[in-house]
Design brief:
By secondary structure, the chain is of the alpha+beta class. The protein folds into 2 domains: about 90 residues; about 110 residues, Beta Barrel (Lipocalin), CATH 2.40.128. It is built from 4 helices and 9 strands. An 8-stranded antiparallel beta barrel has the order 2-3-4-5-6-7-8-9. Helix 1 packs parallel to helix 4 and helix 3 packs antiparallel against helix 4. The radius of gyration is 24 Å and the shape is elongated.
Length: about 220
């Protein structure tokens, strides 16, 4: 009777490990949809840290399961299934930490991509899409996003209808417009910067390095830009 209870208890533990691994895998593979919702700060830092801890807990559990199943001479089918699930989840997460599906591929094509790195491993990326939408992502002790529309008049890019996910940039308004200028950081090269301004009275602006620029492809869609 004790043996039966032990087997039942072990089977429940194995099922618990499988459920935990599957939930972890689903969370990692849906980060694209929710990672920007937490904003920046202490709580936002806890989310990736918690996922990292769960990953290593599952890794330790896998090693233990392998040790036990070897002692059992590979006779426990429930444990073998658990090991198989753990190996699959951990391996796929290691190879594709952002998820096995790149959901960004389903978005409109990027016609301008710019980025800038700051101190403390902080970074900002900006994508202007072919459908005249944009997304700015800031990673700095957490993740926050700004999304909206843009329009082009002559050589000026205007940003409209901006919405935020996560922290709203300390309550500051998003940039009103931007212009493309020769790079201040690499003046001797053929590189360019996107300089963004809060208002017409903003004389400093915020420079972000242009990595990709295919705005000319929009001419056929918006000839009066």
């Amino acid at each position: 009777m004790i043996v039966i209870n032990n087997k039942k208890g072990q089977k429940m533990k194995n099922q618990g490990l499988i459920i935990t691994a599957i939930v972890f895998f689903l969370i990692v593979n849906t980060m694209y949809f929710w990672i920007g919702k937490f904003g920046q700060g202490f709580f936002a830092m806890l989310v990736p840290l918690a996922l990292l801890i769960v990953y290593f807990v599952l890794l330790v559990a896998l090693l233990y399961q392998i040790y036990i199943v070897i002692k059992e001479k590979l006779t426990n089918k429930s444990r073998l299934v658990t090991i198989g699930v753990l190996i699959l989840v951990l391996l796929l997460t290691f190879l594709r930490p952002s998820g096995i599906i790149n959901f960004a591929k389903f978005e409109s094509k990027t016609v301008l991509f710019a980025e800038r790195e700051g101190g403390g491993n902080c970074a900002t990326t900006l994508n202007l899409k072919e459908d005249y939408t944009f997304k700015e992502m800031t990673v700095c002790f957490g993740v926050s996003e700004a999304k909206g529309n843009y329009r082009i008049q002559n050589d000026t890019i205007f940003f409209d209808q901006v919405s935020y996910s996560g922290r709203k940039n300390n309550g500051e308004e998003f940039y009103k417009f931007a212009v493309i200028e020769p790079s201040k950081f690499s003046p001797e090269s053929n590189r360019f910067d996107l300089v963004r301004y809060k208002s017409l009275t903003d004389t400093v602006g915020n420079r972000i390095w242009i990595i990709k620029n295919e705005l000319d492809k929009l001419k056929s869609k918006n000839p009066d830009r």
